[in-house]
């Protein structure tokens, strides 16, 4: 397959997706996502921003040491420290890429960089050459290209390609572009830059106007051959172009795009659920491809049409993207070997037998409450087990709530702080409110509750509820998550998880001041 017939899928869930406030991922969680993306056959995985923190560096290194089939990438500003950190983090990668960038729009050059255009070009060339000294695969991005002048873009891109960049990224950093305009911009650059044929042109679109996927597809139609995207469209502000939508749009409309990706689409839904579980960002039911209603038909006319001939109202097969697979495979009579095997199929391995035993114990406890265990339940269970395995100052020991019509709900909690048990009791507008207030009375975080959301992991009244709690204090934002068949218990777990993240000195800060 020639390069013109192939679309490279560059996933930045673990870098740009992680820049969503509260979506910080641990090293272990990034490895799990990396394995899932590898199984999906994603071409390039941007695992983080190595210079942002020691935690990010370690996570990139861990993904690089684990994932062997996909190219592993680290973002780096066009400065020595970033480039050196990226190279060091990628040392164990089978295939490594350094993705370096510098701002190119007049507003960014003047107010952020405080550099003249010629200085920006000089710095870009220096960065690309230095990156090429570490790895063969170098990508160069023109930050805020959507608002950059074409003449300047032509100059800096030509220089970057001559310096050794093999991929050129044109990001719509602030989500300002309109599809027709953005597609034409890509077409003009490809036509005007003399050495454009020596590099793959890429796009990285943000969704501030809800046009990230449309802009990306317009760019592909005009010659771009790499799209940077994220699972579920995760990303800072309004998010990024959704990987699942890009892949299925180009696959479904082969008549227009005439290109192929290497993606195994049957892993789309499981990976979507994994990312949602890890980040605590639920997928809206009407989300394209991966939403619970994506292939549901309520209208009688639609139902009749689908029953007679599926393609009357469905342009894709649900099973092609991973719906309907692996349902109800586990239960209370399932053994340890079956449990381990199913989790390995989901990309989860255990470092020790003790870790497996702990997770299996949790599984049996859940199976006593819930007759049928779905993959989503297993993923939530493992995420919670991994979270609990990390050092925690606060733990939930016991919870008792009372709620009745005409009476004020009350909750009593017992939590341990570094092993010392503390008891608290509080009233609230409901049992959840009372439980969280009781925890706060002993934790004394002083944090602001920015978000409380509940998502049913599976169908049925015995479904586990997955709760996300977002706390903010002093500009720091964290997401806590918890799952249980009792929604009040799930809420308490989520709040405790958020408290531990908020108080953890080692928890990384997001590199939101820079990036594409």
How does this model look, in words?
- The protein folds into 4 domains: 3-279, Aldolase class I (TIM Barrel), CATH 3.20.20; 295-324, no CATH class; 336-388; 392-503, 2-Layer Sandwich (Double Stranded RNA Binding Domain), CATH 3.30.160.270.
- It has helices at residues 27-39, 54-66, 80-89, 106-113, 117-132, 150-163, 179-192, 212-221, 243-252, 254-257, 268-279, 300-308, 336-345, 353-369, 375-389, 431-443, 487-503; strands spanning 8-11, 44-49, 71-77, 96-103, 137-143, 167-172, 200-205, 226-229, 394-402, 410-417, 420-427, 448-456, 465-473, 476-484.
- The protein contains 17 helices and 14 strands.
- β6 (167-172), α7 (179-192) and β7 (200-205) form a beta-alpha-beta unit.
- The strands form 3 sheets. Strands 1-2-3-4-5-6-7-8 form an 8-stranded parallel barrel, surrounded by 8 helices. Strands 9-10-11 form a 3-stranded antiparallel β-sheet. Strands 12-13-14 form a 3-stranded antiparallel β-sheet.
- Helices cover 40% and strands 19% of the residues.
- It has 516 residues and is an alpha/beta fold.
- It starts with 7 loop residues before the first strand and ends in a 13-residue tail after the last helix.
- It is globular and about 75 Å long.
Topology-level CATH name of the largest domain: TIM Barrel
**Strand residues, percent:** 15-25%
Average predicted local confidence, pLDDT: 88
Low-confidence stretches: 297-304, 506-513
CATH class label of the largest domain: Alpha Beta
How many structural units, i.e. domains? Answer: 4
Give the CATH superfamily of the largest domain: Aldolase class I
Distance between the termini: 30 Å
Task: Please name the CATH architecture of the largest domain.
Answer: Alpha-Beta Barrel
Query: What structural category do the secondary elements indicate?
Result: alpha/beta
Percentage of residues in helical conformation: 25-40%
Biggest β-sheet strands, sense, barrel: 8 strands, parallel, barrel
DSSP, total strands:
14
Number of helices: 17
CA-based shape: globular
* Radius of gyration, in angstroms, nearest whole number: 24 Å
Biggest sheet strand line-up: 1-2-3-4-5-6-7-8
């Amino acid at each position: 397959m020639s390069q013109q017939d192939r679309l490279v899928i560059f996933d930045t869930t673990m870098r740009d997706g992680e820049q969503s406030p509260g979506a910080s991922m641990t090293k272990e969680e990034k490895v799990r996502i990396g394995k899932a993306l590898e199984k999906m056959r994603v071409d390039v995985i941007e695992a983080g921003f190595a210079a942002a923190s020691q935690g990010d560096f370690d996570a990139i290194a861990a993904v690089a040491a684990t994932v062997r089939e996909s190219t592993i990438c680290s973002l780096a500003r066009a400065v020595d420290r970033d480039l050196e950190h990226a190279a060091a983090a990628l040392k164990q990668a089978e295939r490594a890429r350094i993705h370096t960038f510098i701002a190119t729009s007049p507003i960014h050059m003047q107010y952020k960089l405080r550099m003249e255009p010629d200085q920006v070009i000089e710095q870009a060339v220096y960065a690309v050459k230095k990156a090429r000294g570490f790895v063969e695969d170098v990508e160069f991005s023109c930050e805020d290209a959507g608002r950059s002048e074409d003449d300047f873009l032509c100059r800096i891109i030509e220089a970057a390609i001559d310096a050794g960049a093999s991929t050129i990224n044109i990001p719509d950093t602030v989500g300002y572009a309109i599809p027709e305009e953005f597609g034409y911009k890509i077409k003009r650059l490809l036509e005007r830059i003399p050495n454009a044929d020596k590099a793959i042109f890429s796009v990285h679109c943000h969704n501030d106007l809800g046009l990230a996927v449309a802009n990306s597809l317009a760019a592909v139609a005009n010659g771009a051959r790499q799209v940077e995207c994220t699972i579920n469209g995760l990303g800072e502000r309004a998010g990024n172009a959704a990987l699942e939508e890009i892949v299925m749009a180009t696959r479904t409309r082969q008549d227009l795009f005439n290109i192929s990706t290497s993606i195994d689409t049957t892993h789309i839904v499981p990976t979507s659920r994994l990312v949602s579980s890890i980040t605590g960002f639920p997928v809206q039911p009407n989300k394209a491809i991966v939403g619970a209603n994506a292939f549901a038909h309520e209208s009688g006319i639609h139902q009749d049409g689908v029953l007679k001939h599926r393609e009357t109202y469905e342009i894709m097969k649900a099973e092609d993207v991973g719906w309907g697979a692996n349902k109800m495979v586990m239960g209370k009579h399932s053994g340890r070997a079956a449990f381990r095997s199913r989790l390995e199929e989901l990309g989860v391995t255990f470092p020790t037998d003790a870790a497996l035993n702990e997770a299996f114990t949790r599984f049996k406890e859940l199976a006593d409450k819930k007759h049928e265990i779905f993959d989503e339940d297993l993923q939530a269970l493992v995420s919670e087990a991994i979270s609990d395995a990390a050092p925690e100052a606060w733990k939930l020991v016991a919870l008792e709530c009372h709620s009745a019509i005409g009476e004020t709900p009350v909750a009593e909690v017992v939590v341990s702080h570094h092993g010392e048990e503390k008891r608290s009791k509080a009233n609230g507008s409901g049992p959840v409110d009372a439980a969280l207030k009781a925890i706060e009375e002993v934790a004394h975080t002083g944090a602001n509750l920015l978000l409380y959301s509940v998502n049913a992991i599976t169908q049925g009244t015995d479904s586990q509820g997955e709760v996300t709690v977002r706390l903010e204090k002093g500009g720091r934002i964290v997401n806590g998550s918890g799952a249980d068949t009792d929604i009040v218990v799930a809420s308490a777990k989520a709040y405790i998880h958020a408290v531990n993240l908020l108080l953890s000195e080692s928890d990384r800060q997001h590199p939101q001041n820079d990036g594409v």
